[in-house]
Amino acid sequence: GQQVMQIPQYQHVQEGEDFTTYCNSSTTLSNIQWYKQRPGGHPVFLIQLVKSGEVKKQKRLTFQFGEAKKNSSLHITATQTTDVGTYFCADNTGGFKTIFGAGTRLFVKA
Amino acid sequence: DVKVTQSSRYLVKRTGEKVFLECVQDMDHENMFWYRQDPGLGLRLIYFSYDVKMKEKGDIPEGYSVSREKKERFSLILESASTNQTSMYLCASWAGANTGELFFGEGSRLTVL
Predict the structure, then answer these.
(1) What is chain B's mean pLDDT, rounded?
(2) Cis previous bond, A8, omega within 30
């Protein structure tokens, strides 16, 4: 069935360093979504990418969708302690059924 | 402000008990979902519903059932709780294909002893 693989599982960074998480699929995706879950919280939608090669920015966050629509990345520039949490990519290719990657947990040391 | 409300934040049940987890959304969304979240496994889809009285199995439906009698309410039922169902359960409703956004509740942490 649908599956998205996400790496790395964990990432420790010093505040101010950059961070990237990657999401890969063996099949072509219609779209890719990204969510953030703060410790103790619930996932919150960040963005949806639909077009091949699409790049979107939200302040220090940059989201990319691969040309073949089989991979995606989330890059955070100059991390802050408020970036701490788990970042999930999600595949909505099946229509209204959303399948999540395992997530990348980001730790930021001040 | 959109809202998905789960009835219980924390529950402790004994093996074999019947457990009801309730979820209500106020956004008039047609599609609702139940996920469970376990460390290292991300969010796994248990069941979803695209209309009243309609339901579809997700990836891990075994040991669970659901009920959708009203559009705003989606319940997850554990007929006979087992220790391997100790987990965080997250309900979500879907805003539709335009944004694709899922709105999540705060989660229900279930411990089965």
Answers:
(1) 94
(2) yes
Q: Which of residues 19-48 of A touch B (CB under 8 A)?
A: 31, 33, 35, 41-45, 48
Of the residues B9, B30, B101, the best mutation for testing chain A's interface (the one with the most A CB atoms within 10 Å of its CB) is B101
What is the average pLDDT across A61-73? 97
Nearest CA distance, B67 vs chain A (angstrom): 18
**Beta-carbon count within 10 A of B98 CB:** 7
Rounded to 5 degrees, what angle do the CA atoms A67, A47, A45 make? 140
Looking at beta carbons, which residues of chain B come within 8 Å of A33?
Answer: 100-102
Q: Cα dihedral sign for B61, B64, B65, B70?
A: negative
Residues of A in Cβ contact (< 8 Å) with B58:
97
Q: What is the mean pLDDT of chain A?
A: 93
CA nearest to B7, candidates B96, B57, B73, B66: B73
Residue contact B102–A101, C-beta within 8 A: no
Out of A92-96, B20-24, B29-33, B55-59, pick the least confident: A92-96
How many C-alpha atoms does A73 have within 13 Å on its Cβ side? 13
Specify the DSSP element, H or E, that contains B37.
strand B32-38
How many Å apart are CA B64 and CA B57, to the nearest integer? 10
